[in-house]
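[Help] Beginner question about ligand-bound structures

Sorry if this is basic. My supervisor gave me a protein sequence and a SMILES string for zinc ion and asked me to "get the holo structure". I don't really know what that means in practice or what format the answer should be in. Inputs are pasted below exactly as I got them.
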Amino acid sequence: MSAVASRVAPENESKLVELSNKHDFSLLFLKESGFTFRVNTKTKVIKIPYGGLEYLWTFSLKAWLLYQAYAQAQLNGEQNLDLETINGYAGTSQLTEYLKESLYAESYDPNKNFSALISVEEIDQEVATEIFLCALGWIIWHEIAHIELGHSSLEINTLSIQEEKDADLYSTNWILSSSTIAAESKKRIVGITIALLAIQSLELDSKSCFKGTHPDASNRIFDNLSQHSEIGDEISQAMSIVTLQSMTKIDIAPMSDLNFSDMLGEALYQINVNKR
Ligand SMILES: [Zn+2]
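Answer (accepted):
No worries, everyone starts somewhere. Holo just means with the ligand present. The predicted complex, written as structure tokens, is below.
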């Protein structure tokens, strides 16, 4: 079974082996564009598109750069965040947009130009990779959940919204409920948040393949974060706020009179309101 599925919550390794023996599921990486991570619950093959992987990674990097600048602005008591001043942000943002557009291409193009990343520090790339692996782990566990929970339908577009919610929570609980190290839990919750924010970024484009078949991403973020509010992770909340603000082109403004969870609630609310 995939190292990613195990790596995201290594303390559950023996349970993973049990599940793997029970269902004999496998991962298939496809040279496909699109963000259609999916599972065939009959053949138990989880399908991972390359295009989706690329977008998820660059999205993780962009969110990480934004978060750091945001936290710094908050510390300095600044009123606004000037994106131009973030080192490497412009190139990363450009690459993210480019890869997002590529998701809608008919076929996967392996010859992409990643050179815009050259201006990003190696440490930031490493952090992005950690976040990306947690986000991917959450997506894979969401797919495994469809198998384990006995959801009968095949691949996407046929599962019910309730089944999607159940798969989300199964995955979130798998990743968070046995984690005993605070820093580790924080990293994982950031990964979960990033997976859902990446989906949200596609929904805002109204070209998302999840529309109508999955719960709205903004609801999924709220449901999954509130499930583990005891972790009280301000990092993932701040990251969500700033990423959502950048997606919706709302001015990015650190606010001192609201706490992070209020601000996140407000940002998610705005996204829901703007959709109508
Ligand atoms: Zn699903």
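A couple of things worth pointing out: The beta strands are 26-30, 38-40, 45-49. The first helix runs from residue 3 to 7. Feel free to follow up in the thread.
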